[in-house]
TrEMBL record:
SMART domains: HTH_LUXR, REC. Residues 6-121 form the Response regulatory domain. It comes from Aequorivita soesokkakensis. Pfam families: GerE, Response_reg. This is DNA-binding response regulator. Residues 139-202 form the HTH luxR-type domain.
């Protein structure tokens, strides 16, 4: 991958977190934040504006990386990879509902990490790019017409841009982007960003 990613790491074990950070830096990426709790990660995502994340599923103290993954997909549109020691049927089923870009089982090798990041980021970008006329799909699927601004936001969303990047491009705040997305979801009769992308890629 030619372009360096801005990666947020959510991992409650400091040694593993630092190892992930060092490997990401060695691969030419920027680690914008290393977080040990869900609350810390939610705070840092607003400040550091990452465009990729590595997320541990079991965080301890009843915190859950699955919930954070869902936030990344539905609210921020940031691709991520789950990193975990668990691969039982229940955990996998829960993980799949968040549309992760990858799933790595610990211990994680450097080679495995680079492959997962490269493929995960690439697949996310490809998944978000429609081949047919986006306007035609939206017109066919929407419950009511989208405004010009809403259409512009959907186009950027389908290019794989995060909510932060959409806000910068449209010169609006993150909260304004979220408001537009809520209206878009309502008109397109979907519940979140992931469902919208799936609908428009059919």
């Amino acid at each position: 991958m030619k372009q360096a990613l801005k990666i947020l790491i959510l991992e409650d074990e400091p040694i593993i977190a630092m190892d992930l950070k060092e490997n990401c830096i060695d691969l030419g990426h920027e680690v914008v934040s290393v977080c040990y709790t869900y609350t810390q990660a939610m705070e840092q995502i607003e400040i550091k504006n990452p465009n990729f994340a590595l997320v541990d599923i079991r965080l301890g103290k009843d915190e859950d990386g699955i919930i954070f993954g869902k936030k990344l997909t539905e609210e921020f549109g940031i691709p991520f990879i789950f990193i975990t020691s668990f691969f039982d049927e229940k955990t996998l089923s829960q993980a799949k509902t968040t549309y992760p870009s990858g799933y790595l089982v610990k211990p994680i090798s450097k080679g495995g990490l680079v492959a997962a990041i490269e493929v995960g980021a690439s697949n996310f970008q490809k998944w978000n790019n429609g081949n047919e006329s986006l306007e035609e799909k939206i017109e066919k699927l929407s419950h009511s017409p989208l405004t010009k601004k809403e259409l512009e936001i959907v186009k950027e969303l389908m290019q794989g841009k995060t909510n932060f990047e959409i806000g910068e491009s449209q010169f609006v705040s993150l909260n304004t982007v979220k408001t537009h997305l809520k209206n878009i979801f309502l008109k397109m009769e979907v519940e979140n960003r992931g469902q919208l992308i799936v609908q428009l890629n059919k």
